Amino acid sequence: MTAHRIKLWLTIFSVLLFSAVSLEACKPRKATEDPRPELFLSESQMTELITDISLAEAGINYKRNTNKPIDEFKEPIFSVILQKHGVTLKVFEENLNWYNKDPETIERIYDRVLADIESIKSEAAAQKENPDAESGKTE
Fold it and tell me: What crossing angle do the helices spanning 103-129 and 43-65 adopt, rounded to 10°?
């Protein structure tokens, strides 16, 4: 074999190896392939937590749009939410990172979050239209 052919085969082999490694690195991995976080949150726990965080962020953004100061309230609000769910920011981030490795699961969680928020919006709209309905008052 000539030196030219050896270089050609090495180049082809290198390109194929690089392509295989690149394709494997880009392939979405199932969350179950990685070890779970030490304090693992179920899909329903993550849904509830992300729903509460999303609602808090919406409130914070509303306050921001009304030119009211929000920085002093942002951190305490998130601390209360995390305490309500019995987790720390680190635990939440570890679980979120773990779930993000499985696109189907994280999409399912966010679909539930959106459904929960829509339900909350519908309940609030119904209560706004008929404020006496919840308290049991009749006219």
Answer: 60
CB-based contacts of 57-66 (< 8 A; 24+ apart in sequence) = none
| Widest CA span in the chain | 99
Could you tell me which of 54, 58, 29 has the C-alpha nearest to residue 109? 54
Task: Look up tokens 């899909």; give the residue.
Answer: 43
Query: What are the helix and strand counts (H, E) for the chain?
Result: 6, 0
Residue in 11, 42, 34, 115 with CA at minimum distance from that of residue 123: 115
- 94 closest CA partner among 35, 44, 47: 35
Q: Are 50 and 110 in contact (CB under 8 A)?
A: yes
DSSP structure class, residue 2:
-
pLDDT by residue for the chain (139 residues), tens digit each? Answer: 565 556 556 556 555 555 555 555 555 555 457 889 999 999 999 999 999 999 998 888 877 767 767 777 788 899 999 999 999 999 999 999 999 999 999 999 999 999 999 999 899 889 888 887 655 554 4
Give me 1's structure tokens.
């074999």
Return the domain boundaries, the chain: 34-135
Identify residue 23 by its one-letter amino acid code. L
